Structure formats: structure tokens, C-alpha cells
Amino acid sequence: MQPTPIAIAIAMSSSLIAQGTASFTTSELAPTVIQFTDTSSGGTPIAWDWDFENDGVVDATNQNPVFAYPGTGIYECSLTVDFGTGTDTVVQNVFISVLPIPDFGNTYVSGTQTRGFWFPAPTRFSITSAKVPDESAHGLQNVAIYRMTGAPPVYTASTTGGLEFLSTGTASSSAIPCAVSFDTGEFVGVIGACGDASTMRNSYGTPAGPFQSSILGQATTLTRFITQTNLVSSNGLGPYSQTLSGAISRVELTISSCVGLPYGNGSPSSQAQAPILRTSALPFLGQTATLTLENFDANALGILAVGIGRANIPTPLGDVLIGTLAGSVPLNGGALMTPGSYDFTFPIPSNPALQGFGPVNWQSACLVTGTGEFALSNGNEWWLEL
Q: In this predicted model, what pLDDT tens digit does every residue of 139-170 receive, in sequence order?
């Protein structure tokens, strides 16, 4: 039986008014280069308008474009798809998390020299992983991260100190997780090479010289950072310097705006050392953050205080580093603490409204029961992020 003209007309009308749904996926081709793939459904797309930074400017009109972002950060990408009978638009976040570094030039092999780069922090951020490219296929990687009080001295002068993170003898096939946060204006040193106690295989970049990079949309310059020691045998404690020429040695860093910033100085007393408070797992939304307390005396009672904002208020017991106090919890369930370290975990709600929330400020106080001495830790400041 042949369909009637009315039935044909109804079917044609339904087809004409059918409208699809715009969607896309992303994949990383290089640290800041993203492949966009159209996955729109429910219709027949005939045109695509891509706005990679959602600034009202159409950047591409092909179906599956590639775009290079200027640096690390969270970008909004808009895709408008024309289905012939109507259009649909989708906007979603694109996360660029790997610090831009130079392209690979050559491998520099040395028994006693390890290379990297340093830079001033243009904004607060965290390093969440590090990976040394292993072009020589050695199989093991080694990384050290430093917090410096200023630019390192120019070689042949050198200095030491500030080691925040060290990993040696780790398989080079995967990134090394870490949680090291820096504040605006601090100086960051990164040294890394594949190898072992007998050889360092540095992944030199090209071209040589300082490299213009960016962190979370803020420009910074990577400058050659060196130690004349083997990173494994020195445990990252060797003297370091900068040179204003020569190749940067490449270490891939994953960057986030989620931070747990140490700040201020702890307040010891004559018979009680100042505890050290650090963030060992960052406060990402939907995950569990961890504060770790170290360097406290035996037989101590303690509390962990939380509030909003930084302060530096002298008291007879030490410097209070929290502005507005919101509450406190006893350490170790109120029982005496023994030497070592204590972890305090806090589930962070998976609530997009909390993205960028902060500051949340922490400080610990300890009372040594045998002597009655009181000591305060440094402060630690959280900013929540996806």
C-alpha cells in the first residue's frame, strides 16, 4: 500500500523540524595543543562555529579542528552546530594543565651534572605531577622541586636549600604525583633527569636560552637552572645556580589553581619546637584533602584551628596566623601525640559553586604536657578548585 500524500507531508515536516544536539570531546596532542572532535547527534550537521575561548570570536569552522592555547588554565569553548533546520550551542570547560616547555633538542649525558629550569611564580598555583621525558629510554627518572627566596645566583656562584619535593629512581613511563603549592612572587626551581647514581640524562630543549611560558594565563620566563651534582647521589641537596644561556633541561609539570599554600613562620618556645603544617593532598572538589602535621614534641596535646584569611597577631603564646577563627578540632582525638606525623582528612563537596572558593586558613597549636611549653605551627591556606 502506497503512503498517502498527507502521510508523506507529515513525515517530511517531522524530518525538517528535527534538531540535533551539539556536543564535542577533546584530546591532547601536545601540552597546550588540543584536538576537538564533533560528537553532535540527533540531526545532520552542515556547519560548525568553534569559539575556543568563548570570547565571541569564531576561531574555526571545520568539523574537527586543532587549537593551540597560550598556556595553562581553564578555558571555555563554545561550539555552535547548524543542523539545517536550526542550531544548537554547547559550552564546556577545556583544562590545559601542562606547563609549556621547549621542544626536544638533544640528550645531555653526565655523571655529575643535572639540569632544569627556574621561574618566578606569576600567580598562586600547585604542581600536581612531574615527568622527565625519557628520549634515551633509560627507564628511571629523578625530579627535585625547590622553593627559593629569590632568583638563584649566576654560576659560578651557588646556594643551597629550599628542597620541597624529591623523587628518585621512579619509572619514567608515568608522571610522578606531588602536591607543591606556590604563592605569587615566590621563586620555583625544578631539576630533573633520567638516570641513576652513575649517570644523568638531561632532556635538553631547543632553542637554547630562556623560554617564554605561562601559568594559568599569566606569563613567566623559564631560565636554565643547574646543579653540578648527580641528583640521585646528592638527594637533591647539592648547591645550585642559574645560567643565562644554554639549553633548559625539560621537565613536564602539571599545573592546577587548587592550592594548599604554606605561609608564615611557626612559633617555637624555649622547650617546644614549632610544628610544621603542610597540605599533602590538595582540596579538589569531590575529593579528599589532607593536612599533615610534623615536627612536634612528644607527649603533646594539640588542636587544629580553621578560619578565613591570613593574619600575623603576636600573642604571649606565639604568632596567630589566622584572621577570623571559625572553629577547631583536637589532634589525635584529644590524646597525647607521639613523635612522627599525623594526617587529617577532609572530604571536599563536589559542588561547582565552590570552584575558586577561598581562602580557608589552618594553623596548629601544641602544648607539651611535661613542661607546659606551647608552640604554634606555620599557617596553611586552601583555595578550592575542580
A: 999 999 999 999 999 999 999 999 999 999 99
**Amino acid, single-letter form, for residue 141:** Q
Q: What is the CA radius of gyration of the chain?
A: 26
Cell of residue 106, nine digits: 638533544
Per the CB < 8 A criterion, the answer to whether 263 and 379 are in contact is: yes
Rounded CA gap, 113 and 193, in Å? Answer: 9
Q: Is residue 161 within 8 Å of 152, Cβ to Cβ?
A: no
| Cα distance between residue 240 and residue 191, in whole Å | 10
Residue 74, exposed/middle/buried by CB under 10 A (0-12, 13-18, 19+)? Answer: middle
Q: How far is CA 168 from CA 59, 163, 234, 251, 268, in A?
A: 43, 14, 11, 14, 33
How far, in Å, CA of 158 to CA of 329, rounded? 44
Confidence of residue 32 (pLDDT cuts 50, 70, 90): confident
